[in-house]
Amino acid sequence: MQDFWKKIIKVFQPYTEEQLKLRPEFIDELNRLAYKLQRPAALLSMVAWLGFAFKTDPELHPDFHELFYVRIGLTVAGAIVLIATFFPKIRGKGLGWLLFLGSYIYLTTPVFTAYLAEDAAYMSGYMLVLLIGILIPLPFRHIAIFLSLSISLFVASFIYFHIPWTAQVEYSVQNLGIAVFLVLIFGYFMDYYRFMGFYDRQRLKQAYEELRQYNQQIQNDLDTASEIQKGILPDLPPVWNGYRFSSWWQPMEKVSGDFFDLIPMPGDSLGVLVADVMGHGIPAALVTTMAKITFQEQCRRNTRLDEIFYHVNRELCDNVPGPEYLTAFLIRLEKDGTVHYANASHCNALVYRSATH
Predict the structure, then answer these.
(1) Is the dihedral of CA 243, 249, 255, 259 positive or negative?
(2) Rounded to whole angstroms, what are the CA distances from 47 to 132, 143, 190?
(3) Interval 240-274: pLDDT, tens
């Protein structure tokens, strides 16, 4: 029995606490939508009942003169709303003036319809008014309140005018009951799906904002990593024993696997290293840092280039998981101009002699 009542409550309150927190923002969304509908609704209200006022009503019910003023009243109400839309201070957020128009229609139509209850055409018009109400971007509670007031006025007016209960009236009232039922059902689900659509859009916006912030954090980290990687590149000496050095380094992304280094070696010689780690981005940059440290350790204690490559290769194989690899070209410059070099699957080096071009 307790589960049964929980299900009943869930039908009338289907939202979670998290969703209910967004309900005020949803009302703001409805206000923004209603704001755009104010002028079209005002223009439609100004002309909607004019044909009835000047032609249909006088022909069908010539003795019911008050109906003319009710019809013209909607035109006046529409004009008031239209004028108000040109003044920001009184235009409001949006729903206010639509509620004003809705109130006029919902609270006047049941009165004269009850007086003309024996006329099926007017009863049908009243049902149409009730059904159109669910298309207005209103919360369900507003629709329910307007519907309750409108039906209450219809019943009170029906009793006040002493309308006879004929078979035709009974048929129209039965149809009116169906219309009321449809307004409640469709009004409820319209409000529900409007809100859930709004809730899903808000979740998407929140997820997008979280992704944007996360991406921005990644970009900031990459900027920092790029500055760190630039910092591990050597400052080139102007001249070393007659050798002049120059370099150009441009990564494909903010960080990369390309690097070079100048490393002092035993015997007052100098190691010149150019290396390229497979791939680019953060993984390649991490291997680059490890490779640089390993090359520096080996070059400072060894002059044999093949042994340096051997120890560096073993160190990287032991500490770098996965398929990453690097190629390298290493030179050892002697003070007397002797050049020793070794190539570990790197691009061939070019020697340019200015004397012979």
Answers:
(1) negative
(2) 16, 24, 27
(3) 888 888 888 887 778 888 888 999 999 889 999 99
The answer for residues whose C-beta is within 8 angstroms of residue 269's C-beta and 6 or more apart is 303, 332, 333, 334, 335
**Residue 267 CB partners (closer than 8 Å, separation 6+):** 303, 334
pTM across the whole model: 0.64
Report the distance separating Cα 174 and Cα 178, nearest Å: 6
Instruction: Tell which phi-psi region holds residue 256, choosing left (phi > 0), alpha (psi between -120 and 50) or beta.
Output: beta
Look over the chain and give the mean of its residue pLDDT values, rounded to a whole number.
Answer: 87
